[in-house]
Amino acid sequence: MKRLPKLSLLLSLWITLPLACALPAAAADISLLSGGAVEPGIVAFAALVKRELGHDLKIQFNTAPQIAKRLAAGETWDILVSPPAVIDAAQKDGKILADGRTQVGRVGVGIVVREALPAPVIGSAEALKEALMRADSVVYNSASTGLYLDRLFAQLGLSDALRPKTTRYPDGASVMEHVIHGKGQEIGFGAITEIGLYTSKGLRYVGPLPAETQNYTRYDAAIMTGAKQGSAAADVLKLLATPAARAAFTAAGID
């Protein structure tokens, strides 16, 4: 006759097996390269990822043109957050997985001046034109926001008049710092989300571009084919599509 297992062994198995099954997957460090305009939302989302999944997002921020250059140079990340055009190009090159692409949100363009200056009137396209013509200088970036502004100023017939008094920077942060420490009647432009990071540092947010001239840059998230943490990255993008993630981005000013 076979001997029955000892009661202590049975109890041990009864206790430990359910616990083992309930253990979460190991926490992972997930690399993420993102456009700077969505930084406030990504930072808030990273806290949600840590709380819900236990993973740490290791984030770097760049402009869309800089991201495109880094991808062309062969850099690989687990997750890429960028305007669709950058992701589309990377996908054509076989660097992005076809499945799992998720929309992050969109960011509009805002207008700023130094805190000590009165806010110019910008309620319409015509008012914006007048404010720009009166300004001593105009400052904006060479990234997604700046590329749109180039087209807008051309449509408004302002390109030739603004060119001699325009200062460009590769990123939004440099624009904000320039305006804060600038001189004269200076008007700056940037992603509304980035502006919010500087309003307590000497920057006055005048408001968004007039509705008839506003432009929104969309951002998507995708997993790169060379991802080292592909499975964990997929879980992160699933979380990105939840109401909790949407709320975090909305609170950061990302539609």
UniProtKB/TrEMBL annotation:
Residues 1-27 form the signal peptide. The keyword Signal applies. It comes from the Bacteria. Gene3D superfamilies: Periplasmic binding protein-like II. GO terms for molecular function: molybdate ion binding. It holds the Pfam family SBP_bac_11. InterPro entries: ModA/WtpA (IPR050682). Keywords: Signal. One of its GO terms (biological process) is molybdate ion transport. PANTHER family: BLR4797 PROTEIN, MOLYBDATE-BINDING PERIPLASMIC PROTEIN. This is Molybdate transport system substrate-binding protein.
